[in-house]
Amino acid sequence: MTAPDDGAPLAMPGDGDPGRSPGEAFEHLWTPYRMAYIRGVGRATGAHDCPFCLIPQQDDEEGLVVARGRTVFAVLNLYPYNAGHLMVVPYRHVPDYTDLTADEVAEMGSFTQTAMRVVRSVSGAHGFNIGMNQGSVAGAGIADHLHQHAVPRWGGDTNFMPVIGLTRVLPQVLRETRALLAANWPAGDAGED
């Protein structure tokens, strides 16, 4: 959309439509499951209620665990950016990458490689965003328990929905995604194939 040459304000779709007030151009897609995240329901307040400490105590399906290693586990993100978005998490409750042991660093790397291979094989991902936010100031939602994100990406996956609609479309229920990834995760305690 371009501004009119006469300097008039830019008209948004829906402005002037019967039954709509100016600025009410956006359509709404309801994602009520996100409200728990927005309100902080289940957000960790200490090691006793840290979700990353509690998840390993649950069965794999309930906890959305894809694979378990000796020092780390792979789990689907409950609020994914894209389908197949998972995290590699150490069992130990440590906040910083520098707190990991050499064994934990090695297994985290191995699990990340395996996650990429598995997600590519089942979904044809074209690329990945791999990373961790260290500390709440850097964007970590659960800053007290280190976790690394592995977010699959596809050419054109940033379409009008997240850009214009501020909404992500996930084509599969999390439990189905977990089952698919777990079934294709190679056997072995270090995530290697």
Overview of this protein structure:
- The chain has 193 residues and is α+β, with helices and mostly antiparallel strands.
- It has a single domain, classed as 2-Layer Sandwich (HIT family, subunit A).
- It contains six helices and five strands, in the order αααβββαββαα.
- It has helices at 34-39, 51-54, 60-63, 102-123, 160-163, 174-184, and strands at residues 65-68, 72-76, 86-90, 127-131, 148-153.
- It has a five-stranded antiparallel sheet.
- A hairpin with a 3-residue loop joins β1 and β2.
- It starts with 33 loop residues before the first helix and ends in a 9-residue tail after the last helix.
- A motif (Histidine triad motif) lies at residues 145-149.
- Pfam families: HIT.
- Residues 51-160 form the HIT domain.
- Keywords: Hydrolase, Nucleotide-binding.
- InterPro entries: AP-4-A_phosphorylase, FHIT, HIT-like, HIT-like_sf.
Quick take:
This is Diadenosine tetraphosphate (Ap4A) hydrolase. The protein is of the alpha+beta class and 193 residues long.
C-alpha Rg (nearest Å):
20 Å
Structural domain tally: 1
Helix content: 25-40%
CATH topology term: HIT family, subunit A
Low-confidence stretches: 10-15, 159-169, 189-193
**What's the name of the CATH homologous superfamily?**
HIT-like
Structural class, judged by helices and strands?
Answer: alpha+beta
Distance between the termini: 50 Å
- Read across the widest sheet, the strand sequence of neighbours is 1-2-3-5-4
For the record, the CATH class is Alpha Beta
What is the overall number of helices? 6
Quaternary: single chain
The residue-averaged pLDDT reads 77
Strand content: 5-15%
Biggest β-sheet, characterized? 5 strands, antiparallel
Task: Work out the number of β strands.
Answer: 5
Question: Architecture in CATH?
Answer: 2-Layer Sandwich
